[in-house]
User: Fold this.
Amino acid sequence: MKISGARIMLECLKNEGVDTVFGYPGGTVINLYDELFNFKEINHIMPRHEQAGTHAADGYARATGRVGVAIATSGPGATNTITGIATAYMDSIPMVIITGQVPTALIGNDAFQEVDIIGITRPCTKHSFLIRNVKDIALIMKKAFYIARSGRPGPVLVDFPKDIQMSQCEFHYPETVEIRGYKPNLSGHPRQVEKAVAMILDSHRPVMYVGGGAVLGDAAESVTQLARILSLPVTTTLMGLGSFPESDKLSLGMLGMHGAYCANMAMSNSDLIIAIGARFDDRVTGKLSTFAPHAKIIHIDVDPTSIKKNVRVDLPIVGDVKDVLIKMIKQADNSNDKLAGFEAALAPWHADITAWKEKHPLDYKRSSTIIKPQFVIQKLRELSDDDAIISTDVGQHQMWTAQFFKFNKPRTLLTSGGLGTMGYGLPAAMGAQAAFPNRQVITICGDGGVQMNIQEMATLVQNRLPVKIVILNNNYLGMVRQWQELFFDKRYSSTCNELPIDYIKLADAYGAKGFLASKPGDVESVIKQGFKEKGPVIMEFKIAREEKVLPMVPAGAALNEMVLNA
Amino acid sequence: MQHTISVIVENDFGVLSRVATLFSGRGFNIESLSVAPTNEDGLSRMTIVTRGDEQILEQINKQLNKLIDVLKVLDFSDGSAVERELALIKVSAEDDARAEVLRIVDIFRAKIIDVTPKSYTIEATGNPIKIDGILELLRPLGLKEVVRTGSVAIGRGAKGWNG
Ligand SMILES: Cc1ncc(C[n+]2csc(CCOP(=O)(O)OP(=O)(O)O)c2C)c(N)n1
Ligand SMILES: [Mg+2]
Assistant:
């Protein structure tokens, strides 16, 4: 039976196991929406802005590990998705973005609402396709999903002209797909694995440095196992939080610009860094020329381009991190005879680390009169469910969350690490809540960034998505203000948001509930009230306005040159 | 250091811009680029001459390999290839200069492919150093227009790129 291209697209999504899509209608996807009208297998959520829809698909993907799907119309709908696509690209999030396009005959004519979205997004997609024949839809979609989720994941854009949506053909979904130019190398080389374990057993000051790749590769369990077998201290990047329980005594917490003192000191003094799904980003290494001067580096990553991009590497292992780690664990088990001796030899190293931990723990000055943001984060951890999903926006509140929430499980922190996209938090939480209607989903935002996608309150209310929105209100673009305080003589150029907003009324206007805490004594009760609500909630905390995120490695300084209290 | 890389790609819409975007986006430079279909169905071959140190070359290789439409990257930096370039050269040639041009053409085993009373158009092939050489000698006579294809390269020996 022949069916329309639009219908074929939906059948493809169904075949890929997609249960939820985030999309916004318009002229060039009207045929697709017409089919969606009666297509019960897919839950369609309409955001109030295509950027938010794309972030929601991203949040859905990060929380579930599945491919997130977003739909937008051509022209402005498509361009509105770009920030969402770039955000996903920088953090390697599997997504398929379907954009409407003007009819093929009009492409290139500057038709109404025509943009070359494939051209515009080329630098921030893993791959893209323009569908030019209704017969190609199924194979293209099969490829799109395969590319998005395999190897180093990433967003794939599919441009879908209107006339192709209206054409008809038979539908067969291919069972397998073969792309001759794309064969991600997933299996770690056994010889390299052997060498890696030998290098670890030869080391005296080893550190595991774990990034987002471990979360994306579902390798948290293996990371934990390897660390525990070999008593290796573990530090994670922002993106790696949750891949190793921060409650474990081997945990050093997060490293980098706002990382823990002990983590940065451990890296700086290490003689062997075992990098796992991490990419030596400048926010992590500090000044490159002084980065980990004594360390040999083992780098495990599924993406060969990540290896030796920023730092020299002594032992590269290309492969799926979970596969490599499982092999390493086996190898370590085989070296059982050496383990006891190795562990004993690490004692001085563990003693150094304990001393660093005690010397400068992550901490802040308590106050009984003003709300400290770190205190709110600690209370949120204490009062939230164990498996609560936290998303953040970008700024100081993001770093306080990373420092103080203490993540123990993978895929419980959704945050824009690579691109640092303000406006990400609320829609990402929306996506996660759509995936897990029964889990607690909390977004922690600043007063600046929450405004960037605040319209999604409407989507939350409409779709009964009970996201808990926490606003740490310092009435500043705090992170930028902090830099201005430290490096620009307190000239607060455009970072001081004097206009007070009544968030309780705002929540009310959307049909949600709002709560306000202005003093430390309110914090616990506001959180409890907020969590008790069945629907979406705003919880505003008026925090110490000029609190800084510390410690801090100033841009361009060495990792061990941390500012501890400024 | 200058390097010559051959890239086997799907002969598909957008491949060239993907490769170009990769180079421009990462600040790699392209000294020359030539593209044309190969004998295999659906495949094209690009020859790219680029410049950079060891580490940059490694990144270029890996980044090219990462593109979905790239089947194979052949790195000829070790001199394992024969390289050729073709140039079309229009040079002023009047009076005594006409004989001089012909002598140079003869030495370089080039060909005259168009003649007017005031000019010759020459076709020269060879490795890029040879092309530089003939241009050097012709320059004083008055180069009016030069078109170079950029290098193409093929591995030495009996084997093709895929065996
Ligand atoms: C879209 C976007 N624009 C600008 C920035 C630069 N930026 C980074 S943090 C920040 C301040 C954020 O302020 P707020 O949301 O109030 O959070 P706070 O730092 O106060 O916790 C800004 C402007 C950004 N990261 N993203
Ligand atoms: Mg703020």
Summary: The longest strand of chain B covers residues 81-92. The mean pLDDT of chain B is 95.
